[in-house]
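Memo to structure team: turn this sequence into structure tokens by end of day. - J.P.
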Amino acid sequence: MTGPTSTAEQPKGYTSPLPTPRPHLGHAVASEWTKMISVRSTVWTLGSMVLLVVGIGVLAVAETRTTDYQEVPLTAPALFGLLVGQISVMVLGVLTITSEYGTGMIRTTFTAAPDRARVLTAKYLVFATVAFLSVAGSVVVVGLSSAILRGGTASGRHGGGEWAHAMAGCFYVTMLGVLSLAVGAMLRHSAGAIAVMLGLVTLPPVIGGMLSMWETMAPLGSTILRYNAPVALMQLFGLPNADTGNVPGNPAHLLLILLVTGASVAGSYVVVGRRDV
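Reply from structure team:
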């Protein structure tokens, strides 16, 4: 019969020789960056956005004359491609999180990093940075092409304010992408979240036009026509839409997208923190 083991004979606890640093937001950002650059959806969505903005923008510059820019900013040609390219940014925003839910990878992510708020914050930071730099870089290429080819004395005076307005438009598109990520986090379904965002961007001009035909609903229809994403982008790029009457200023459009996106981001933190995976 074996007697009780003495304290000196008990096995000691295992201590890993590898360094075990305390995880922080930087680790989560590095992990999300690796995910972002290692999936094909990033290349396809951002690549199509760059091709649309630069391709359509440069083509618009080539088809215009120098005198056409007397009343139009030199960055305006970038808007034509961006109105279509913003859809690619929204799709990438949705896929940034719904692809993990679709493959089940989100379980591994939350097992390795149980702090869900930190993981979600890292996703927002990485996506917003990549989206803004991609959109702004494409707009700058078109703006520089326009300035070089059409920026002569016949085009009138153009200042740095045009570039500031264009960057505000890039920020607006980035916020649409962040809003898409928040919607994707709450719905956890790629097709559903993309459908919601496409409806949010494309339906307001149609619904506003329909409501404007009825006298009782005309004020509501006019409001919807003045507050929607395409009109906001035209206003931010210095191309006000005369058909919609008194278009709100740039601060109103930026405040509206910040409020809507902020509320959705807050909702995504609550939903992701409470739901099981």
